[in-house]
């Protein structure tokens, strides 16, 4: 802006210089009579420019005004835009894969946070700019996990993405072991075994007589480690095997154990 000191100008010519040297001034615009301001646009950030103005009419130009300089501010820099469309997919009982949409072009990277309850989140990883996927491994089976992601740069963090949740599937139970079949009488054999898993829903017990195929004897509840097989035939060989099961499937069978029921003593003469 400037002060108009004449009443007979046709207009004003505005000149600009990158360094204030008279030799480097160039005209950048003209305005009409009585106009006392001009907007110079399209400039570089953080750059100093020098200006001067002269009036003119048909008789010629006036002398130049004083020179005045101004420096453009830096380009405003903000935190990156929020990521969105976060999706969590359970790949296995110990891995969840994440993917999201990158909505900014100035992030330094992304922070990934996880929660067991959607209340308390903890940062578990950072990934570089433009990365839109992450695999969270080493997780606990049959467990819910919640996730959120934010972008970051030198100016701070974006807002968070949506929360994505999923759960890891359970695993197959471990095989039972140490199966023992002990003869109790001519009609009873007792079974014991070791429970090696903590996620079974129960155990299946199968038996066979001599060379016949195995058939299901019974099922017992989780954490049960013994069973009494009664009403058996005397002096008969029985084979047994046990496996654990849950809603995912069944373990392998234990090793076989066998026993022979006692013979019935002869009747008294």
Describe the 3D structure.
With 269 residues, the protein is mainly β. It has three domains: 11-72, Immunoglobulin-like (Sandwich); 84-168, Immunoglobulin-like; 177-261, Immunoglobulin-like (Sandwich), CATH 2.60.40. It has no helices and 20 strands. The strands form five sheets. Strands 1, 2, 3, 4 and 5 form a five-stranded antiparallel β-sheet that branches. Strands 8, 9, 11, 12 and 13 form a five-stranded antiparallel β-sheet that branches. A hairpin with a 5-residue loop joins strand 14 and strand 15 (189-194). Residues 1-21 are annotated as: Disordered. Keywords: Repeat.
Subunit organisation of the chains:
single chain
Envelope shape? rod-shaped
Q: Considering DSSP H and I runs of 4 or more, what fraction of the residues is helical?
A: under 10%
CATH topology of the largest domain: Immunoglobulin-like
Q: Would you report the number of β strands?
A: 20
Q: Which spans have pLDDT < 50 for at least 5 consecutive residues?
A: none
Number of discrete helical segments: 0
Question: How many domains make up the 3D coordinates?
Answer: 3
Based on secondary structure, the structural category is mainly beta
Main sheet: strands, sense, barrel: 5 strands, antiparallel
> Mean pLDDT score, rounded?
96
CATH architecture of the largest domain: Sandwich
Order of helices and strands: EEEEEEEEEEEEEEEEEEEE
Our Rg estimate from Cα atoms comes to 43 Å
Taken as a percent bin, the fraction of beta residues is over 45%
In the CATH hierarchy, what is the class of the largest domain?
Answer: Mainly Beta
Distance between the termini: 137 Å
CATH superfamily of the largest domain: Immunoglobulins
Organism: marine sediment metagenome
Domain Fibronectin type-III: 1-75, 82-174, 175-264
Region (Disordered): 1-21
Protein name: Fibronectin type-III domain-containing protein
């Amino acid at each position: 802006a400037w002060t108009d000191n004449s009443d007979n100008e046709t207009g004003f010519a505005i000149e600009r210089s990158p360094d204030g040297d008279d030799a480097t001034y160039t005209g950048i615009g003209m305005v009409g009579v009585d106009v006392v301001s001009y907007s110079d646009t399209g400039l570089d950030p953080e750059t100093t420019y020098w200006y001067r103005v002269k009036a003119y009419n048909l008789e010629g130009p006036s002398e130049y005004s004083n020179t005045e300089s101004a420096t453009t501010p830096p380009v405003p820099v903000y935190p990156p835009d929020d990521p969105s469309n976060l999706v969590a997919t359970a790949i296995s009982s110990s891995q969840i894969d994440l993917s999201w949409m990158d909505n900014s072009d100035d992030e330094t990277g992304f922070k990934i946070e996880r929660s067991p309850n959607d209340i308390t989140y903890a940062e578990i990883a950072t990934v570089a700019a433009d990365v839109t996927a992450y695999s969270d491994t080493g997780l606990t089976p049959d467990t819910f996990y919640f996730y959120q992601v934010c972008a970051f740069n030198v100016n701070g963090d974006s807002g968070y993405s949506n929360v994505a949740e999923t759960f890891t599937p359970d695993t197959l139970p471990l095989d039972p072991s140490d199966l023992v079949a002990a003869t109790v009488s001519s009609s009873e054999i007792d079974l014991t075994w070791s429970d090696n898993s903590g996620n079974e829903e129960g155990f299946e017990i199968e038996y066979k007589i001599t060379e016949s195929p195995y058939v299901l004897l019974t099922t017992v509840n989780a954490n049960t480690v013994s069973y009494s097989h009664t009403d058996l035939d005397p002096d008969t060989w029985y084979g047994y095997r046990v496996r654990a099961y849950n809603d995912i499937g069944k373990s392998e069978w234990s090793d076989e154990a066998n026993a022979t029921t006692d013979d019935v003593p002869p009747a008294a003469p």
